[in-house]
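Okay, can you check this protein?
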Amino acid sequence: GGFDKVYEMGKMFRNEGMDIKHNPEFTNIELYAAYEDYNDMMNLTEDLFRTVASNVCGTTQITYQGTPIDLGSPWKRITMIDSIKEVTGIDFNEVATDEEAKKLAKENGIEFKSIDQRGHMINLFFEERVEETLVQPTFIYDYPVEVSPLTKKKPQDGRLTERFEIFIGGREYGNAYSELNDPIDQY
């Protein structure tokens, strides 16, 4: 209603099961900004983490479970596909079909469902081979459309979306995306 930027912090409750990476109750900040995209949100998020660390800890150099973490340096930004290539040598830009992606998954011991598509394979490779290697703050962006509902597709490649997640210490700390605002795509 006339506000270009809004946010809310509060408790979240999700009935999605619980494991070492997911708690059904957590504190969340949700924010929206008109006329901005996921690049702007990456900048805001990085600045938010840096500012909070400085104000709370007095420094952007922290230690988590014995590992030094540098929240002050510019954070690495890499596409999901490039992160997989960096860690495994597999380039999903060269994998055109679901069948090729499933073949690679089988060859690399990645379990998947028979209905999974190329985008699901990319996500599975990332989760099983890359995620734990992301120790220093890193933005992983350009997620497959199959795992990114309600997210705006990239104009250059409709198989990918304008979405990012933040990883620190091998764990996800945030998820964000440019909102899908194409009424035909939404339909």
Notes: DSSP finds five helices and ten strands in the chain. The chain has a mean pLDDT of 94.
